[in-house]
Design a protein that fits this description.
- The complex is a heterotrimer.
- Chain A is built from 12 helices and no strands.
- By secondary structure, chain A is an all-alpha fold.
- Chain A has a single domain, classed as MetI-like fold.
- Chain B contains 8 helices and 20 strands.
- In chain B, helix 2 crosses helix 3 and helix 2 runs parallel beside helix 4.
- Chain B is elongated and about 80 Å long.
- Chain B starts with a strand and ends with a strand.
- Chain C has a domain of 170 residues: MetI-like fold.
- In chain C, helix 3 packs antiparallel against helix 8 and helix 6 crosses helix 8.
- Chain C is an all-alpha fold.
- The chains are: A mainly alpha, B alpha+beta, C mainly alpha.
- Chains A and B meet through helix 8 and helix 9 of A and strand 6 and helix 2 of B.
Chain lengths: 281, 399, 262
């Protein structure tokens, strides 16, 4: 590692200037706006933040956002771990695993719009899901998915599941197989080996992945917007409204800062957990 | 009394390749057995099969007469010390050692007590609260050992556990392990590719090669009476001399024939190889003018075995002077000796002994002399190599 | 074992779940009916033809591609030197620099979009290609940075030191030794960057107009009001583009990412 300032300075000057101008400065503007008095007054104020906490309706929005985020994360974990296990531990044929990874990653490469649009079609009154449910005799009338939290949940899990699968999969693949063999050698049955060796060793990777997914779920805009049917509002939608229709940049700023700060805390937490227990060596 | 572990024609095939070919072996209680062989000979495969990580393609594994061939590792009353130790990084040293007892249902307090005992046995009493990543390689190895023995297994399997240690430490640990094994009375099955290690520690050595057992015996038996060419050459250094027998047994080297003394026992086949260890060869200088007929005369084999004359029997021409020049060239006993002439190609002094590389015609030979090389011995010199015929171990060719 | 069977069933169900919406869209885009139907009644490529004949869609595709392409190039130009600086030098504030450059990956894009709009308004940098470009560059740069950085390993540094030892000046070492080695990282990162820009909505919605539109935003607007098979065709086209991108990635770096280390 070389020291001295000249070389790194020259290498970093362009990206740093760019980022300062088009990343840090705009964010600073938002923060400032959130603290500035609205209307024609000047000076700083915390009114907008107070409003965030005090406005009942908006408080509900935040609650809904976090609730959906939590359920999405839990569902992704419960479903993602088995799928990851399947891909890492059960699939033996390399080509099939590659195909599965492709199936996992293709959705990531398509726009949220397209993915949510697909669910709009599937979850509609005449969509395949209702057709299937009625065909199986599970329901008599079409179930309403669009415009419910369940519908949003289905769409969000769809978008975020690959992240969990990749995070868990990587954690699983990194577990040293000789540790599991040692556990078996010492008398632990497969379930005990999983509980006492595999799970603890993969936990840091999983938790850090879960935190990231939770953060993404809370900040999501497109999927909730499309699947909410106008009946449900989440935080990002609220923020967008402030900038596109309500034009209250101050309040929008306050909401944005709340979301930003929350995200930063979560990211720091994930980084901490990911490194505390370190690698499985 | 039934053997602790019996392997009955155990085979392990992976697709077209055979890793283990009809391995049969028995291990008694409290024995220290070494599985010795070069890389790829199947010793680790055998160990893993015994441990239960591999199921044999055919054959049986019996522990105290119970057929455990299909049993999973966690059911077998044995434990393994892995080559990379496989210590659980998320558990402390104590947690690692307690793992086995806890899985077996032992109460926490008792498990802790037992674990402390095991740690004391390996000399790591104060390390209970540490984590594996804080320990040195030698300490990790001892934790792995404690973790295995705390379960009081009937048989302990060790997969090259010392290979990661440096030489001095390894030699010390070898003796410690031997003492520990004797103290605990647990049978040890120890995989290694280092024959010195095997000879140091084991009661019996199983030499493996190409998935087969070449020979089973004590270190001395294997060294002095190797069952095959492979064993002879793998254990220590060996000079391989072809012999044949029609009416008279003789050793033939590039057309030179040396008759064997009559009292030498010859296997009941027509030909084979004779194994001659370097330290059994005596080296003495030959006068240049006499080398022509030196190696072509048959030895006379009828001298009384107890005679200790200073001449070499074997050649009528007075081609050497029996007076030795220096301690490294002591005169060999004359009884039942064989000799031939060779040229020294290399002289290597290790300090404690000297290795003499010599060439007789096309044949390369190795001799080992104690101490430092004699001043008269030099590369390029013509010497006489002689040895007592009884020192040779004869192996007959398979039919 | 029962557990393995259960896991298999769950896994297969989830894989079907992952593929389902995309299959539905592709299928619905082929229907002969004027409304979305799955399974499609009849097979026709008319909707794709209609899409390609529609100047609005075509220009949106062009805009999206140009935007993604330029943003990626810009990102590469900026972040490769940054990767070098972070991997090979120590200097005060290094952690902060690293965090700043990587943070667009984890911060909510809707907030970034709003911030850029508000900030850009002061300079007239709104609703233009340039406005879109700077935002996209910021959010995709971390992909290239991460991939390039990952390949600047200590082993790689040994090669650079050898090059220097043999008399090559820094520029030469960069072009002859560093670039060939990190090329794979740059390519991979660029693919992820390009795709991320192409599919982005949260940033683009703030700065698009009727004339200057990207495909995702156009779809976003339409989907909320009209649903006809043309939308399915446009979506289908993007799905096919994604599949092509993945296959290219698989062929270049191989996607056997989750295999057990054996």
């Amino acid at each position: 590692m070389m020291s001295g300032l000249r070389a790194p300075f020259l290498l970093l000057i362009v990206p740093l200037v760019f980022f300062t101008a088009f990343f840090l400065a705009p964010l600073a503007t938002v923060v400032v706006a959130s603290l500035s008095a609205s209307g024609n007054e000047s000076g700083l104020t915390l009114d907008h933040y107070v409003r965030v906490l005090a406005d009942r309706y908006h408080w509900d929005v935040i609650l809904v956002t976090f609730r959906i985020g939590l359920y999405t994360t839990l569902a992704c974990l419960l479903l993602g771990y088995p799928l990851a296990w399947y891909l890492v531990r059960i699939v033996k044929w390399r080509t099939w695993r590659r195909i599965c990874v492709i199936m996992l990653v293709v959705p990531l490469f398509t726009s949220n719009i397209v993915r949510s649009f697909g669910w709009m079609v599937l979850l509609g009154r005449n969509g395949l899901v209702n057709d299937g449910l009625m065909g199986l005799g599970l329901v008599d009338r079409p179930v309403r998915f669009l415009g419910t939290e369940l519908g949003i949940l289905i769409g969000m899990v769809y978008v975020l599941l690959p992240f969990v699968v990749l995070a868990v999969g990587n954690a699983l693949a990194r577990v040293d197989s000789s540790l599991e063999q040692a556990s078996s050698d010492l008398g632990a049955r497969p379930a005990a080996t999983f509980m006492h060796v595999t799970l603890p060793l993969t936990l840091p990777g999983i938790v850090s992945g879960a935190i990231m997914v939770f953060t993404l779920a809370v900040s999501a805009y497109v999927t909730p917007a499309l699947l909410s049917g106008g009946r449900i509002t989440v935080l990002s939608m609220l923020i967008f409204q402030q900038y596109s229709s309500v034009f209250d940049f101050h309040y929008g700023g306050a909401l944005s800062v709340v979301l930003l700060v929350f995200t930063l805390i979560m990211v720091a937490l994930a980084a901490r957990i990911g490194t505390v227990k370190g690698s499985a060596t | 009394m039934s053997a602790l572990l019996t392997l009955d024609s155990v085979c392990q095939r992976f697709g077209a390749s055979t890793a283990l070919d009809a391995i049969s072996l028995s291990v008694e209680q409290g024995e220290f057995i070494a599985l010795l062989g070069p890389s790829g000979c199947g010793k680790t495969t055998l160990l893993r099969t015994i441990a239960g990580f591999l199921t044999p393609t055919s054959g049986r594994i019996l522990i105290e007469d119970k057929d455990v061939s299909a049993w999973a590792p966690y059911r077998r009353p044995l434990n393994t010390v892995f080559q990379n130790y496989a210590l659980f990084p998320h558990l402390s040293v104590l947690g690692n050692v307690m793992y086995g007892p806890r899985r077996a249902g032992v109460a926490r307090r008792d498990a802790q007590a037992q674990s402390h005992e095991a740690l004391a046995l390996v000399g790591l009493t104060d390390f209970a609260a540490r984590f594996p990543r804080e320990l040195s390689g030698g300490q990790q190895q001892r934790v792995a050992l404690a973790r295995a023995i705390v379960n009081r297994p009937k048989l302990l399997l060790l997969d090259e556990p010392l290979s990661a240690l440096d030489l001095k430490l390894r030699k010390r640990v070898q003796l410690e392990l031997k003492h520990l094994q004797q103290k605990l009375g647990i049978a040890f099955l120890f995989v290694t590719h280092d024959q010195e290690e095997a000879m140091t520690m084991a009661d019996r050595i199983v030499v493996m090669h190409g998935g087969r057992i070449e020979q089973v015996g004590t270190g001395t038996e294997i060294y002095r009476r190797p069952a095959s060419r492979f064993v002879a050459e793998f254990i220590g250094d060996a000079n391989i001399l072809p012999w044949s027998c029609d009416d008279q047994a003789r050793v033939t080297l590039d057309g030179t024939e040396l008759a064997m003394p009559g009292h030498i026992e010859v296997p009941p086949v027509a030909r084979g190889i004779a194994v001659l260890r370097p330290e059994d060869i005596h080296v003495s200088p030959t006068r240049p003018h006499a080398t022509d007929d030196a190696s072509s005369s048959p030895t006379s084999a009828d001298a009384a075995p107890d005679t200790n004359e200073t001449t070499i029997m074997g050649s009528p021409s007075p081609r050497r002077d029996p007076s030795t020049i220096g301690s490294s060239m002591s005169t060999p006993p004359a009884a039942g000796c064989m000799a031939l002439t060779a040229v020294v190609t290399d002289l290597v002094s290790i300090g404690s002994h000297t290795v003499v590389h010599a060439q007789a015609g096309e044949h390369k030979l190795l001799a080992r002399l104690p101490g430092l090389p004699d001043a008269s011995l030099a590369s390029g010199q013509t010497v006489t190599l002689s040895w007592r015929a009884a020192c040779m171990h004869l192996i007959g060719d398979a039919a | 074992m029962i557990a393995r069977l259960l896991i298999r069933i769950v896994a297969w169900a989830l894989l079907a779940y992952l593929v389902l919406p995309l299959v539905v869209i592709l299928g619905a885009s082929l229907t002969t009916t004027p409304f979305l139907a799955f399974p499609p009644e009849g097979i026709t490529l008319d909707w794709y033809r209609k899409m390609m004949a529609d100047p609005g869609y075509v220009s949106s595709f062009v805009t999206s591609t140009l935007l993604a392409g330029s943003a990626t190039i810009l990102a590469v130009i900026m972040t490769v030197p940054a990767a070098l600086a972070l991997a090979r030098f120590s200097f005060p504030g290094k952690a902060a620099v690293s965090s700043i450059l990587m943070s667009p990956l984890v911060l909510p894009h809707i907030v970034l979009g709003a911030a850029l709009l508000q900030f850009g308004a002061y300079f007239g940098l709104t609703r233009s290609f340039l406005a879109l470009l700077v935002g996209h560059t910021v959010i995709i740069a971390p992909f290239v940075l991460r991939s390039a950085f990952a390949l600047l390993t200590p082993e790689q540094r040994a090669l650079e030191e050898a090059s220097s030892d043999l008399g090559a000046r820094p520029w030469t070492t960069f072009f002859l030794v560093v670039l060939p080695q990190i090329r794979a990282g740059i390519v991979t990162g660029s693919i992820f960057a390009f795709i991320s820009s192409f599919i982005n909505v949260e940033l683009s919605i703030f700065n698009t107009t009727a004339e200057l539109n990207t495909i995702p935003v156009k779809l976003f607007n339409y989907v909320q009001y009209t649903i006809d098979p043309t939308i399915a065709a446009v979506s289908g086209a993007t799905i096919l583009a994604a599949v092509v991108a993945i296959v290219i990635l698989d062929l270049t770096i191989g996607l056997d990412m989750l295999s057990d280390r054996e």
